[in-house]
Recover the amino acids of this structure.
């Protein structure tokens, strides 16, 4: 799993995956896609990166605990859900603006549900990356314990089926 | 808190009749909580403030009764008792004792004082949907009980000051904690007796159980006390459940949820069928558990683990009478409404239960040494008598050619009588136990050391023995009269008369032993040369109160017995001047069928000899003999004390057994149970509705329309069927994954790009998670690796469940198209319904989802609330992983390997949590 080919490919693929995930998430309201899928896609990209370059590399890329993402995502989602209540609307009412002017003569179709979608995305990324990261750390440490060879174990980070 | 108080004061002004009583109910607990704000050293201020609560309640109830009259006391115009309804007129000139006796019999046959049932007060809405609102009923019974609770509450607040002391740090801490709890109880009890809504009664009823639990387990470090507190709580709490059932049945059957309405419409209720009888039985079980009726009486002597102020207040004078109160409340409803209605099992059931309790309590009481236990069992006995009194009310009898409706007179006098001697007995028992000992054999000649305390105790004990000159004597006469009348034509009631005589003799014997022991006379329980009382074991194990043996000087010390005095005085006032007694309590009396002119005087009792008087005489003679004899001088251990521990051990054992079966930790077993239950439900549904089977053929045929779909489907099926064949876990997970990836192909074939995309991602992450978790699990035991033939049924079950799910999918797809939500979703995903103005022109659209991707609009808009919940759950699950596998993040980050090795226990923890 630590072949040079794989590492190099991962370097190319991961940014593309992340961009594509963002694209999928943003277009989700009108075309196939959405926050959930976007989140899953970003997670898969990040996990791929971890498999190729090890957990230290992922820690450099995401220099904070994934629970920050979860908290942030939940906060955004709940704020989006609760703001309509303050305005006298039912919970989660979406504000839809047809043709919102964004400058340079361009307009977009805007629905405030997009914020909710972003919240979902962040939660999904935080949860999946966090869980897999945590579990593979556990596997790594078990490996260290069993092999008694810390240096090789620390560098071999992928799933090595027994 | 002051704001809350202001709010309630406002309530009291807005809704005077209900608000005044509400304020009375909450006054004790508010005052108790207010004492928490005082510094601990301010003992006097604390006592005054705590006492102000019940005192305010007392005044408010009095004011209410004065302003609105005793509810339910609107006798018919020809009645001779019009005078007693004018409660406000306390200076009135009506002299009940002087009323002529002949009026009584002429009225005895009608329902007399119950002609006009009580009206409840105004309502403050609480939970109208449940018929649970704040409305209060201060009729004779409720009003009297409220005054009793509040009045004795004030005395107990004072007594607690004397009992706990005030000088030491410990005493101050005790008082600090005691008064709020006591206030809580007083409020709950006032609520029970004043509530008009049946469910409101129940709410307060349970609150008294809770506060009683807190007070019995006062000593938090005494395991025995905590056990006894639990015993009392579960016994009375279980009774509360019965009461809830009874009240619910009564309410749903009659449609009335207020006592006042029930009493008013008692004649119109549907008495046919057994519903009301069942309701009565359930409510009686509740009342019997609270009032310590045999065989549920065991909790009351156990409750003596509480400090003596609590025993004197809750477990003799007030809370244990809640059951008696409830039976008294139900009496006009279930027994006295009129001809041909009511519950026929009332008299037999209640009289016998009460009589057995009475005799058992009496005999056990004689056979005890600890003063508190003696008085606890006499309390049980007296509660039995009160129950039997209400039971006898179900009998009518012939008297001089008239039919008298019920054999009950002056129930309030009976209740008051007991409270007025039992509370002083407990108060003085606590006092003497504080200074000397509570064990009777240690108290030889104690009178000469503590004359005031012992004199008070002996005066109260004389009332316990129902000696002539106390109101207790007349009360016992009233009870004997009731039996005597009811036994006319019912010979088996003579047995109850004999039981009463035996009980009364036991009470006399207790008094005789108290007298001889305290005065150091021959025949006493103690040793003649008993000077070393201090060195003996005082039996203070029961309330765990730290005794300091030197009497505290001044008023503070005297408060340990002084509060008993007014109550004892009332006993002798009642005995020697029944006119004054009637002036005080006559207005609360509800029943006067034979003695409707008030409590008969001692002179009347002596000048009208008859069976009751002879019975009293026999009881006194027998009692003196028993008291002086050597009989029953041991310490009887009540066999019923084993009931609760036995039941508790059995239920805990059963629980453990069930837990071992149901929660055995094997995921396979859980899954099997869930799936079998699901299959059973589905089979039942299909059995019930054949329409669930019919569409399978047509729908299945449609599934074969697209050849590509069939091929992919076959692939899925084959992969799934191969799963059980492989034994390696990793291979199985990969097979499962490939199954999932084939489903992605299925979605592509049927043109659902969203789903395909999602499924793909979920499948990747799912397989990853599976592999990681499986690597952390221990290797399966050798036997489980290969597929054992005997466990093939699991594969069979999986097959059946899978087929069933396919079938349910087909059934769902077959549902009526117009009922499909999908139509609605895709219609309103972008726009809402078109808005059409008056001219018929389309002006625009109402709000819709604002998105063209229906799936996503469902996720974030139509079903957004679901999604919100789901992501919250996701976050929680991740939190679970992070907390159950505590971080090794830093440790792996270039730390020396020795540390990684050091935490070698972690993987096993992970195994435990994951497996």
């Amino acid at each position: 799993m630590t072949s040079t080919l794989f590492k190099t490919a991962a370097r190319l693929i991961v940014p593309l995956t992340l961009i594509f995930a963002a694209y999928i998430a943003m277009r989700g309201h009108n075309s196939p896609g959405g926050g959930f899928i976007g989140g899953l896609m970003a997670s898969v990209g990040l996990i791929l990166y971890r498999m190729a370059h090890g957990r230290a590399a992922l820690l450099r890329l995401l220099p904070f605990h994934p629970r920050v993402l979860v908290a942030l995502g939940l906060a955004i989602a709940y704020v989006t859900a609760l703001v309509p209540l303050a305005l006298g609307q039912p919970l989660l009412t979406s504000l839809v603006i047809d043709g919102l002017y964004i400058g340079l003569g361009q307009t977009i179709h805007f629905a405030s549900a997009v914020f909710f979608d972003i919240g979902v995305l962040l939660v999904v990324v935080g949860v999946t990356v966090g869980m897999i990261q945590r579990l593979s750390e556990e596997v790594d440490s078990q490996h260290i314990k069993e092999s008694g060879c810390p240096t090789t174990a620390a560098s071999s980070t992928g799933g090595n089926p027994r | 808190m002051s704001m809350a108080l202001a709010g309630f004061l406002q309530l009291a002004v807005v809704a005077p009749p209900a608000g005044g009583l509400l304020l009375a109910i909450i006054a004790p607990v508010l005052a108790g909580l207010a004492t928490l704000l005082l510094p601990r050293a301010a003992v006097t201020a604390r006592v005054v403030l705590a006492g102000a609560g019940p005192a305010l309640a007392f005044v408010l109830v009095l004011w209410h009764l004065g302003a609105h009259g005793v509810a339910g006391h609107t006798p018919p115009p020809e009645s001779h008792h019009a005078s007693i309804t004018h409660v406000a007129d306390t200076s009135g000139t009506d002299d009940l004792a002087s009323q002529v006796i002949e009026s009584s019999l002429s009225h005895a046959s009608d329902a007399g004082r119950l002609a006009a049932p009580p009206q409840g007060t105004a309502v403050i809405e609480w939970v109208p949907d449940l018929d649970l609102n704040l409305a209060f009923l201060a009729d004779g019974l409720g009003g009297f009980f409220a005054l009793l609770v509040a009045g004795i509450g004030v005395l107990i607040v004072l007594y607690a000051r004397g009992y706990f002391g005030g000088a030491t740090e410990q005493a101050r801490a005790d008082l600090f904690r005691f008064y709020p709890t006591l206030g809580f109880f007083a409020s709950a009890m006032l609520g029970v007796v004043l509530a008009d809504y049946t469910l409101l009664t129940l709410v307060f009823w349970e609150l008294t159980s809770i506060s009683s639990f807190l007070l019995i387990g006062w000593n938090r470090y005494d395991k025995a006390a905590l056990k006894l507190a639990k015993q009392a709580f579960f016994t009375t709490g279980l009774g509360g459940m019965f009461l809830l059932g009874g009240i619910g049945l009564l309410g749903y059957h009659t449609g009335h949820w207020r006592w006042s309405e029930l009493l008013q419409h008692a004649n119109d209720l549907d008495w046919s069928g057994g519903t009301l009888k069942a309701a009565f039985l359930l409510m009686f079980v509740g009342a019997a558990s609270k009032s310590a009726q045999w065989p549920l009486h065991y909790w009351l002597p156990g409750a003596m683990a509480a400090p003596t102020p609590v025993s004197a207040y809750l477990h003799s004078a007030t809370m244990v009478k809640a059951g008696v109160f409830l039976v008294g409340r139900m009496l006009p409803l279930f027994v006295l409404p009129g001809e041909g209605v009511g519950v026929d099992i009332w008299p037999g059931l209640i009289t016998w239960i009460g009589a057995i309790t009475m005799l058992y309590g009496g005999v056990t009481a004689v056979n005890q040494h600890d003063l508190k236990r003696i008085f606890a069992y006499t309390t049980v006995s007296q509660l039995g008598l009160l129950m039997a009194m209400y039971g006898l009310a179900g009998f009518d009898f012939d008297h001089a050619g008239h039919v008298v409706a019920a054999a009950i007179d002056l129930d309030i006098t009976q209740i008051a009588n007991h409270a007025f001697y039992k509370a002083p007995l407990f108060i003085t028992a606590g006092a003497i136990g504080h200074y000397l000992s509570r064990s009777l054999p240690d108290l030889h000649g104690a009178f000469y050391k503590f004359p005031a305390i012992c004199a008070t105790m002996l005066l109260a004990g004389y009332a316990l023995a129902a000696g002539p000159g106390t109101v207790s004597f007349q009360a016992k006469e009233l009870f004997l009269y009731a039996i005597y009348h009811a036994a006319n034509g019912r010979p088996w009631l003579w047995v109850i008369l004999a039981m009463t005589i035996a009980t009364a003799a036991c009470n006399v014997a207790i008094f005789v032993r108290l007298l001889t022991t305290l005065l150091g006379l021959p025949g006493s329980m103690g040793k003649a040369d008993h000077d070393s009382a201090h060195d003996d074991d005082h039996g203070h194990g029961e309330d765990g109160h730290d005794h300091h043996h030197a009497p505290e000087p001044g008023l503070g010390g005297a408060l340990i017995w002084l509060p008993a005095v007014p109550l004892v005085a009332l006993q002798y006032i009642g005995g020697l001047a029944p006119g004054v007694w009637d002036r005080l309590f006559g207005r609360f009396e509800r029943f006067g069928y034979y003695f409707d002119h008030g409590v008969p005087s001692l002179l009347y009792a002596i000048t009208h000899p008859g069976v009751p008087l002879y019975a009293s005489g026999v009881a006194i003679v027998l009692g003196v003999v028993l008291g002086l004899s050597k009989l029953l001088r041991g310490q009887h251990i009540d066999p019923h004390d084993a009931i609760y521990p036995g039941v508790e051990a059995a239920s805990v054992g059963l629980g453990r057994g069930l837990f071992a079966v149901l929660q055995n930790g094997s995921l396979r077993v859980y899954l099997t149970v869930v799936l079998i239950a699901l299959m059973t439900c589905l089979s039942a549904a299909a059995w019930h509705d054949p329409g669930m089977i019919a569409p399978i053929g047509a729908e299945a045929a449609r599934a074969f329309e697209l050849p590509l779909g069939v091929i992919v489907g076959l692939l899925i099926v084959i992969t799934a069927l191969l799963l059980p064949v492989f034994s390696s876990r990793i291979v199985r997970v990969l097979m499962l994954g490939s199954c999932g990836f084939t489903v992605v192909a299925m979605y592509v074939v049927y043109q659902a790009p969203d789903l395909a995309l999602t499924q793909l991602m979920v499948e990747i992450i799912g397989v990853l998670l599976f592999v990681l978790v499986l690597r952390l699990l221990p290797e399966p035991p050798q036997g489980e690796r290969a597929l054992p033939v005997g466990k093939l049924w699991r594969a069979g079950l999986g097959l059946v469940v899978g087929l069933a799910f396919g079938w349910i999918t087909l059934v769902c797809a077959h549902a009526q198209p117009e009922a499909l939500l999908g139509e609605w979703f895709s219609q309103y995903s972008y726009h809402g319904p078109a808005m059409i103005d008056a001219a018929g022109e389309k002006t625009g659209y109402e709000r819709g989802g604002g998105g063209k991707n229906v799936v996503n609009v469902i996720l974030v808009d139509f079903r957004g609330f679901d999604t919100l919940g789901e992501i919250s759950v996701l976050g929680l699950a991740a939190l679970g992983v992070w907390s159950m596998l505590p971080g090794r993040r830093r440790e792996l980050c270039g730390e020396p390997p020795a540390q990684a090795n050091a935490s070698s226990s972690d993987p096993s923890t992970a195994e435990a949590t994951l497996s």
